[in-house]
Design goal:
5-stranded mixed beta sheet; Gly_tRNA_ligase_bac; ligase; nucleotide-binding; BirA Bifunctional Protein, domain 2; alpha+beta; binds adenosine-5'-triphosphate; aa-tRNA-synt_IIb; 7-stranded mixed beta sheet
Length: 430
Amino acid sequence: MTKDANLEKITALAKRRGFIFPSSEIYGGLANVYDFGPLGAELKNNIKQLWWDRFVHKRDDIVGLDSSIFMNSKVWEASGHVSSFTDPLIECKHCHSRFRTDALPHENLKQCPHCGEKEGFSEPKQFNLMFKTHIGATEEESNDVYLRPETAQAIFINFKNILDTTRKAIPFGVAQMGKAFRNEITTGYFIFRMLEFEQMEIEYFIHEKDWERFFDHWKEEIITWAIEVGISKDNLRFREHDEKERSHYSKRTVDLEYNFMGDFKEIYGLAYRGNYDLAKHKLMYVDQQSNEQFIPHVIEPSFGVERTILPILLDAYHEEEKRIVLKLKPRIAPYKTAVFPLVQNKEEIVTKAQSVHQNLVALGIYSAWDARGNIGKRYLSQDEIGTPYCITIDYDTLKDNTVTVRDRDTTQQERIKIDQLQEYLMPKII
Ligand code: ATP
């Protein structure tokens, strides 16, 4: 099976099982915008929680921020986004469709991918990617606001607030995750390039002399995270930006790329931004011990949530002889367990199964409940959404208080005592 076919299968599975729906579908859709369904919402939340846990809770040198999406427009003027957060676009002289110059295949330099005509394209024009709207009833320029195109900028403008309210000293980081918006012209496959997406970003503030050491540290951290969350190491590579590609303030940028159908594309970015942003916002740092005043430098690891989900789904998807199985890491799987009463018409079995199910949920082990159809079909249904363990309550349970626990990946079954379930499951799912 080609990877292309794999992408189609993932897209279909995501829709069929309630992971990801095209937006506004009943009104004909909205290109490059997607909704996360019941299982997609769980998967996404699990990834975000894991990220927060790893980079905020488990590290004493990083604190979190949850800023608003709207900010004073002066923020984006100072940061350079109003003048230069742009893509070069060319327009087909025949149908007027616009394309990013770097997105056109070389052989298509004359032919429009949209209408197929060969009339050629206009000279490239810079097109700003920020969505603009306005606050209040009048459309005066002074009321203009932008939907943030990245979460990072709010970290810089809160730098002083964070220093004043925490006991952090350099080196330290601030993490934030949330929605970002970009008026992308080039369409991407499935959820790779969206107009509205989520980022998880860290600004790690350092002394200039330490930048190389921390850059290497974060390079290691981002790939370790990607592998831990379930992306196959074999499909990942780093790509160093050359001088032409790098933003003028960046001294070094590296992308972590994933092999999408033979085409390596950025999933995460790592940039050494010097002290560009804090300098632009006129923010300083005073060392409490030496009283030295300086503008800290910053290393920025930037992770896309949807660009985490797509590779995870592609790598987790397996077709076996008799089943489709999503081999998701248990920690991020929407359900950790599914509980089945063997039959629906024996009250004691259903009641027992309900109590096992409720107890698991109370322990924080999110569990699915399924009482319909034969057990084989129920297993297949859970395999397809990546539930690591299925627990069946049967006639023997009523005699000896044991249940059958079936492992998603091996399909092996074990008999476990109900009062030992927690001990059995916990190390496997966290
Ligand atoms: P690209 O070159 O693919 O447009 P970028 O270099 O503009 O990406 P950054 O500005 O570095 O991306 O954004 C940081 C991260 O945010 C990216 O690594 C990616 O994970 C995510 N991201 C950026 N744009 C999008 C988008 N349109 N849809 C989904 N995720 C995105």
